[in-house]
Write a structure and sequence with these properties.
Oligomer: homodimer
Structural class of chain A: alpha+beta
Helix content of chain A: 25-40%
Distance between the termini of chain A: 40 Å
Order of helices and strands of chain A: EEEEEEHHHEEEEHEEHEHHEEEEEHHEH
Number of helices of chain A: 10
Largest sheet of chain A: 8 strands, mixed
Chain lengths: ~450, ~450
């Protein structure tokens, strides 16, 4: 390779993504992840963009230059960023199959302090609170950063599947004049003298766009001012939302989601096989995801686990877990669609079931004990939507621009919203959704 | 095709994306975009997800059923959503090369009102204000919706290029405890009793992530509480941000962006050739984008156009236009990188040029007269960053979690942020950036 290659200064160094070294001299860069002095040499673990590479540093056999290019007299330190020229030698005992023997190190930057937490072990020996407090540094840990490589691969898979199925990606406003999901869990702000809100979902906008492109999706932030302080709530999360027109029933939405998840999980090992192995991820098999009606689910849980029904119109977290247990025992599936949620618990735009107006053409997807998606068919008829809003004591005038589509003509349609962090957390069997969010926001945390 | 295909109710109808009909009977769905009564028959233009399809409706030769399945006695109306069975006949005079002769129409939904604006012409005969007021409906116009198909294709191209170059896609919080760009143009809100802000950019977070993955990107909303009311400002826009480590100079960032834009523009016609043709889009040729230093640019504009220099440390909009004119005359390029912006006008994290500390290692990309990107190399050394903050009277304690990375060790790095709407608007040579935003937010507008 040519060191003076113009186009991209990085390309003159072997990028570890290319997987294999060639025997001989290589150029490589990264951070000193770990340094261990042995007798007569040091182990240096170099952290590159994706891997940890074992290097053997022998004093006197490696020239070390400082940031200014002069000979470096001091010691090497962890978290220095360096460029290295080294002899690559096959070494079956090393994880990459190679060992590097540096002959020249150029220090690019020197950290001002040693880290307040130890990040170079397999796990970080600290509480979740501490891990999150020092997130900019703790994400450098190999397991921590593997999580978000997997999350990136999930987004790639979802996107690819939706694009292949003719969904158009949209970017809709997060500053809105009206909340879509109702309730008090909405952030308010002053917008040039008027009250505005942060979007609780792209619901209204993706419906509007069904009238334009028939099928649309958005992957973006969603804001919920919920005061819950649990292992499964975030106040800002990444919503994977899609909406599609000309459906004949909500089951089509479920099948589309099933296809999307299957495609994504099947593609994961190619995109991030090493990270999956590092985190011991059990990828669920997806056949045909079973359906169960909400009321049937309630009854069966109560019967099987001899549990009194406290809340009639919703599943509590414990019930979600038990239901998944029950379904997995019976069908082997780690996913289940719970359908026909009570009308009273669904938003004003949810379509009721003609056969029984007390339930809606809606569903949740549960995965390993947790709700990861909510979706359903929407009301598309103007008169029906107006009637339902009046029934609920809502003022249609406040929803003027939303109702424009019902007034102007809409096809039968529906969609869903998946929480990216929840899906990631269940896939990785993490105990807290915060672990699947780069910089989580909760009732106590707004930094880093 | 089998009408009872289970997997996806839409697949039993020809999706127009598949481009060609086969001679014979087809099933298709869409909205009645336009109806024109002629003598003895009607022209019906069906708007599908992507095309306008010409249909010839002959009374007595087409059975029409209403939403409930019974024979429809009333007239057909524009913006009804329908499913249709029709005879496809080759017709060279029609835009798709086909004409449909419906034999059966099933009305799926009936609009409650005719539209307040006429959307079925080539252009919408209304002011921008009106177009935006009725955005959920006006986006159904063929030219309006073509804009956002092209924007979708841009995002696909950018994403694909960055992924091929080992950038990891990230999702960083929009609720933050500290603004990254300084100044008063920041939205504030109450976050459970504390003051929080809406992110003016993902700047701090993408820098943090360089320490983790070396190369990252994010495509997401960015909020600016600017009171500007111009044709090029939005208060919420979609930022295309990337950041990369181990650079040797900011020119690498420019070359990466150049590659990204070239790849994207080269792929456009495959993804949205029809939309490009419909909007007469002139795709710029990208060779090697020329560079010019800020001060040289100022001087040359002043000399060539005999213009007094009013603002010494920035280019005003008129100067941006003139500079692009000048560069295009000289080099043929419709893009130009303006480099070495004055330190005083760049944020506290911008790296100064060692040769002249009054300028920074930074750049803007101008495209057809408008700044579409700002980028540069960042300070990675802790002491240097602290010194600069103190010089500017900033309190480092307020930036505790950001400075964690400088303290802990960072490679030389930099990045940029592109405004998706501005880029789209210049590509399409639109007179107002609002036209390239689905639901624009400005000082007067927060709905729809």
């Amino acid at each position: 390779m040519n060191e003076n290659q113009e186009n991209n200064g990085n390309e003159n160094f072997v990028r570890m993504e290319s997987d294999a070294f060639e025997e001989g001299m290589v150029k490589i860069h990264g951070s000193i992840h770990r340094l261990r002095k042995m007798s007569g040499f040091s182990f240096l673990i170099l952290r590159t963009a994706r891997r940890l590479v074992q290097c053997i540093l022998e004093p006197g056999r490696c020239e070390i230059l400082g940031p200014d290019g002069s000979v470096w007299e001091g010691p090497l330190r962890e978290e220095m960023c360096i460029r290295m020229e080294a002899q690559a030698v096959r070494e079956p005992r090393s994880k990459t199959g190679w060992e590097l023997h540096p002959v020249r190190i150029r220090i690019l930057s020197v950290p001002a302090q040693t880290l307040p937490v130890v990040i170079h072990g397999k796990e970080i020996p600290a509480s979740l609170e501490t891990i999150l407090d020092y997130r900019p540094m703790t994400l450098r840990n190999e397991k921590e950063r593997a999580v978000f490589r997997i999350q990136d691969a999930l987004v790639r898979g979802f996107t690819e599947y939706l694009q292949r199925n003719d969904f158009v990606q949209i970017h809709t406003p997060k500053l809105v004049s009206q909340g879509a999901e109702g309730g008090a869990n909405i952030f308010r702000l002053d917008y040039f003298g008027r009250e505005a809100y942060l979007a609780q979902s792209p619901q209204f906008y993706k419906q509007m766009m069904v009238g334009v492109y028939e099928r649309v999706f958005e992957i973006g932030p969603v804001f919920r001012a919920e005061k819950h302080d649990t292992a499964r709530h975030l106040n800002e999360y990444t919503g994977v939302d899609f909406e599609m027109g000309y459906i004949e029933g909500f089951e089509e939405l479920c099948r589309m989601e099933e296809g999307m998840i299957r495609h994504t999980l099947e593609g994961l090992s190619e995109l991030c096989g090493e990270e999956l192995a590092l985190l011991n991820v059990r990828i669920p098999r997806i056949g045909s995801i079973p359906f169960i009606r909400f009321h049937e689910a309630k009854e069966r849980i109560a019967r099987k686990y001899r549990r009194p029904v406290r809340e009639k119109e919703d599943l509590d977290p414990e019930e979600e877990k038990l239901l998944c247990e029950l379904i997995q025992e019976e069908t082997g599936s780690e996913f289940v669609f719970v359908t026909h949620y009570p009308t009273a618990k669904r938003p004003f735009y949810a379509m009721e079931d003609e056969a029984d107006r007390s339930v809606t053409k809606s569903f949740d997807l549960l995965f390993r004990g947790l709700e990861v998606t909510t979706g359903g068919q929407r009301i598309h008829d103007h008169a029906a939507q107006l009637a339902k809003m009046k029934e609920r004591g809502m003022d249609p005038e406040q929803f003027e621009s939303y109702l424009m589509i019902h007034r102007g003509g809409m096809p039968p349609h529906g969609g869903l919203g998946m929480g990216l962090e929840r899906f990631t957390a269940r896939l990785l069997e993490q105990d807290n959704v915060r672990r699947a969010c780069l910089f989580p926001r909760d009732i106590h945390r707004i930094a880093p």
